[in-house]
Amino acid sequence: MELEETVRNFLQNQDKKFSSEACVQFNEKMSRHTTFKTGGIAKVYACPQTENALTSILKFAADNKIRTFVTGGGSNIVFCDEDFNGIVINTLSMNSIRITEEEKDGFILVSTQSGAMTSAFVNWCTKNSISGMQEFAGLPGSIGGAVYMNARCFNKEISNVFYSARILKKDFTIEEIYFNSNQWEYKKSPFTDREDIILEVTFRLEKNSKTEKELAEECRHFVEERRSRGHFNFPSAGSVFKNNHEFGKPSGAIIDQCGLKGLTNGGAKVADFHGNIIINTGNATSSQIAELVRTVHDKVLEKTGFSLEPEIIFIQP
User: Fold this and answer.
1) What confidence category does residue 231 fall into, taking pLDDT thresholds of 50, 70 and 90?
2) What class does CATH assign to 3-90?
């Protein structure tokens, strides 16, 4: 039985409430859902609005041995050009934010579902005079993705404000994971090498230490910094390679030193304004981006002996 038929049969056997909460579509262009603006067709694309709908879709897929991929803002991925014969699950509709505890050791605990866009969460904190997230203003992608990758912006990491996360494990049980400094590293979290799904994240922030106006001004500063560096000029995934302090320089500086700025492969290009950003100049394919990443890696290795580690995720067909 074809995947679409299997999914349609499943949906027909569910009540109307589930169907409205599951929001399943067929043959969806992934180029519409990634910041690189590339990618082929997802045979099945679901945007669950509730945790129950998300869990039911995942259980159905597991029972029928259907491949799944869970995404949020699509900001750190390169999706294959070919059809994805499985279910892509987008969590962006799961985006509620709430104050969990008004005071915890002098801080405030704020919880947000993983699908909330990072920029939306920063804005919510700003409007409620809650500080601690300003450096992440303008960061593309969802909170779930930021936590998964331990996003780092302007020398601040998500781990600096992380308190706990509620996750859906592979066996469909729920677990709360609390901060443990031994589990966090540069661009790595306890969730990076696990198949668990982050459902909700709680942050340890400060209430009323700054006014809404002061926070808004700080956020504007960080957004302008991103804009001045060209981050919003073209479709991209931000930094392509992780920095490695053992190499003595940031990856962008090493790539620049190797004379690779401006290197192109079809519509994919190493940005003129930053060696560690690859952009889609308008008609790039995911394959061209992947090939350019490999080329940059190999040329840097050849010239310096440094093996740069990609931080973007490549989704295969």
Assistant:
1) confident
2) alpha beta
